[in-house]
Write a structure and sequence with these properties.
Radius of gyration of chain B: 14 Å
Distance between the termini of chain B: 41 Å
Largest sheet of chain A: 7 strands, mixed
Shape of chain A: globular
Radius of gyration of chain A: 13 Å
Structural class of chain B: mainly beta
Helix content of chain B: under 10%
Structural class of chain A: mainly beta
Number of strands of chain A: 11
Oligomer: heterodimer
Chain lengths: 114, 115
């Protein structure tokens, strides 16, 4: 595709529910990243995939958060038992190599937990 | 640990004014440094980058020089336009190891330019 695509653009869910956020990276990009951006803050790293494997998941806040990239392309960020503190914009980025240079970001999914 | 500290905003300027947004960082090794910009209603975009000490990144009239001795990467523009109104993020990546792709962002600086 022309850019990184994230769906849905907005998601409202009730506390305790399960949500899935999808990221479709630029075709051919082997590296994929998830970040979380709270209001008034810079994005914070969650997890980084190189191909199908998670090369670094040190930013996942707890075991309610999980991400997969089974075929090395589309990735899904999964949040179980959502809490109000999970409300944020979740950003996905991709790049040709796992070097952070020229990472292209999607528009993000705004998650609101009520 | 690794971090980025940006000049706090918001910054409000008149058109054609000079812009400086200060940025300092802490990191292990020799990271690459970036400025990303987020225009209203749009996603994050890479504005400019520098990959080693003393390099100058430039784009759209913006410049920033990688100063290893002061661990700084200040953003400057000689004459801002209304269309430069956006949020600016100073960013570095981890150098080496398995986290080479991980970006560390500053908190962002909101710039508003009035006609």
């Amino acid at each position: 595709g022309a850019g990184v695509s994230q769906t849905p653009s907005n998601k409202v869910t009730e506390k305790g529910k399960y949500v899935e956020l999808r990221c479709d990276p630029i075709s051919g990009h082997t590296a994929l990243y998830w970040y979380r951006q709270s209001l008034g803050q810079g994005p914070e790293f969650l997890i980084y995939f190189q191909g199908t494997g998670a090369a670094d998941d040190s930013g996942l806040p707890n075991d309610r958060f999980f991400a997969v990239r089974p075929e090395g392309s589309v990735s899904t960020l999964k949040i179980q038992r959502t809490e109000r503190g999970d409300s944020a914009v979740y950003l996905c980025a991709s790049s040709l190599a796992g070097q952070g240079t020229d990472a292209f970001f999607g528009q993000g999914t705004r998650l609101t937990v009520v | 640990g690794n971090s980025v500290t940006q000049m706090e905003g918001p910054v409000t300027l008149s058109e054609e004014a000079f812009l400086t947004i200060n940025c300092t960082y802490t990191a292990t090794g020799y990271p690459s440094l970036f400025w990303y910009v987020q225009y209203p209603g749009e996603g994050l975009q890479l504005l400019l980058k520098a990959t080693k000490a003393d390099d100058k990144g430039s784009n759209k009239g913006f410049e920033a020089t990688y100063r290893k001795e002061t661990t700084s990467f200040h953003l400057e523009k000689g004459s801002v336009q209304v269309s430069d109104s956006a949020v600016y993020f100073c960013v570095h990546n981890n150098a080496g190891g398995t986290s080479y792709g991980k970006l560390t962002f500053g908190q962002g600086t909101i710039l508003t330019v009035h006609p």
